[in-house]
């Protein structure tokens, strides 16, 4: 693990003594499925109302067979103009995108599209909470990075193809991944909203 | 149900002297298209970030032709589990459904599904702003009715098939429809958030 400068840097939502393999990796579920399961957990427990938006589809042809429901026979995937997830948590608007990589030291910027960055900037301007959840599958580590930190980096480093893990560790919030719900990102949101001071992890 | 004191009743967002024919009816656009246009206006002017969710589709079969993009060849419409519109306005989470009717004196309750009502109740419990936009096409009148007023009515009147216009006039907020943007529902939201006292309309 990276050594952080004294008194700075990493801000885990929960102090993780040593990174354990994420349980969902073992169960063979992917990151998106785990976020959906987490959101279902939050919904069932009255903790937040967060939904994944349906995939946008361009419908070209629909058949209406007699005595049967409409059947779409020609359609194409469209690129989403917003992020994948949004909802409400204690009056706060949350808006985020979730991505994963197999890289170990950096997160590829190509995972984000210009229009998603623009969307997050617009959400920020309306005082919404926009962020990304970044999952390093090989490391079994997940981070919440605020759009307020991602966007300036994205804009300044158009030529650069990825965000270093060090940057994410410095500015992001690590999400524990070894309990139920498996990606408890609301713990990070609580810290952000509570304005808790950044602290160094005791695990270093 | 709550009884409002005398002199309260209808709360138009703007005093409309006499209901004028909605301009969008003349242009041949439907209610949904006008709401989308209104949201585009709000987005372009930095006033709010509200999007319509894509229609949920159950994809059964996809072809991947060589040198061509993926083509969905069998898919079906699914019923949405949430409302159609959501987004953020000055830090507030907005969540709503838009419906229209050709009726003149009442709005059919069948326009709302149980799961949409449940979703709006969950949004309210997270301090989100949930509501419906009800458009009477024949009358050319549009109302914003808070979910906090709709839900108790819906639950108490399961046997009743519609909400009377009188109820909507009493508890709802009338949205002017004769300017750009054509359905300026944010004016109602501003009044709700500002806690402005209810007032009777001069047009009654």
TrEMBL record, chains A, B:
<dbReference type="GO" id="GO:0006310">
    <property type="term" value="P:DNA recombination"/>
</dbReference>
<dbReference type="GO" id="GO:0003676">
    <property type="term" value="F:nucleic acid binding"/>
</dbReference>
<dbReference type="GO" id="GO:0000287">
    <property type="term" value="F:magnesium ion binding"/>
</dbReference>
<keyword id="KW-0378">Hydrolase</keyword>
<feature type="binding site">
    <location>
        <position position="84"/>
    </location>
    <ligand>
        <name>Mg(2+)</name>
    </ligand>
</feature>
<dbReference type="InterPro" id="IPR011856">
    <property type="entry name" value="tRNA_endonuc-like_dom_sf"/>
</dbReference>
<dbReference type="InterPro" id="IPR011335">
    <property type="entry name" value="Restrct_endonuc-II-like"/>
</dbReference>
<dbReference type="Pfam" id="PF03838">
    <property type="entry name" value="RecU"/>
</dbReference>
<feature type="binding site">
    <location>
        <position position="97"/>
    </location>
    <ligand>
        <name>Mg(2+)</name>
    </ligand>
</feature>
<keyword id="KW-0460">Magnesium</keyword>
<keyword id="KW-0963">Cytoplasm</keyword>
<dbReference type="GO" id="GO:0006281">
    <property type="term" value="P:DNA repair"/>
</dbReference>
<keyword id="KW-0479">Metal-binding</keyword>
<feature type="site" description="Transition state stabilizer">
    <location>
        <position position="99"/>
    </location>
</feature>
<dbReference type="GO" id="GO:0005737">
    <property type="term" value="C:cytoplasm"/>
</dbReference>
<keyword id="KW-0540">Nuclease</keyword>
<keyword id="KW-0255">Endonuclease</keyword>
<comment type="function">
    <text>Endonuclease that resolves Holliday junction intermediates in genetic recombination. Cleaves mobile four-strand junctions by introducing symmetrical nicks in paired strands. Promotes annealing of linear ssDNA with homologous dsDNA. Required for DNA repair, homologous recombination and chromosome segregation.</text>
</comment>
<keyword id="KW-0227">DNA damage</keyword>
<comment type="similarity">
    <text>Belongs to the RecU family.</text>
</comment>
<keyword id="KW-0234">DNA repair</keyword>
<protein>
    <recommendedName>
        <fullName>Holliday junction resolvase RecU</fullName>
        <ecNumber>3.1.21.10</ecNumber>
    </recommendedName>
</protein>
<keyword id="KW-0233">DNA recombination</keyword>
<dbReference type="GO" id="GO:0008821">
    <property type="term" value="F:crossover junction DNA endonuclease activity"/>
</dbReference>
<feature type="binding site">
    <location>
        <position position="116"/>
    </location>
    <ligand>
        <name>Mg(2+)</name>
    </ligand>
</feature>
<feature type="binding site">
    <location>
        <position position="82"/>
    </location>
    <ligand>
        <name>Mg(2+)</name>
    </ligand>
</feature>
<dbReference type="GO" id="GO:0007059">
    <property type="term" value="P:chromosome segregation"/>
</dbReference>
<dbReference type="InterPro" id="IPR004612">
    <property type="entry name" value="Resolv_RecU"/>
</dbReference>
């Amino acid at each position: 693990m990276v050594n952080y400068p004294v008194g700075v840097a990493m801000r885990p939502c929960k102090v993780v003594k040593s990174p354990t393999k994420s349980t969902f990796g073992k169960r063979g579920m992917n990151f998106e499925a785990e976020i959906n399961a987490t959101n279902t957990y939050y919904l069932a427990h009255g903790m937040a109302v967060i939904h994944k938006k349906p995939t946008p589809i361009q419908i070209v042809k629909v058949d209406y067979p007699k005595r049967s429901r409409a059947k779409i026979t020609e359609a194409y995937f469209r690129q989403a103009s917003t992020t994948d997830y949004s909802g409400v948590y204690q009056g706060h608007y949350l808006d985020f995108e979730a991505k994963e990589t197999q890289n170990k030291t950096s997160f590829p910027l190509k995972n984000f599209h210009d229009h998603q960055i623009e969307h997050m900037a617009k959400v920020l301007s309306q005082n919404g909470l926009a962020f990304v959840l970044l999952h390093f599958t090989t490391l079994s580590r997940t981070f919440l990075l605020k759009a307020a930190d991602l966007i300036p980096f994205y804009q300044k480093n158009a030529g650069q193809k990825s965000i270093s893990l060090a940057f994410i560790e410095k500015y992001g919030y690590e999400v524990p991944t070894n309990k139920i719900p498996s990606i408890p990102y609301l713990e990070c949101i609580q810290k952000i909203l509570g304005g808790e001071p950044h602290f160094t992890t005791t695990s270093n």
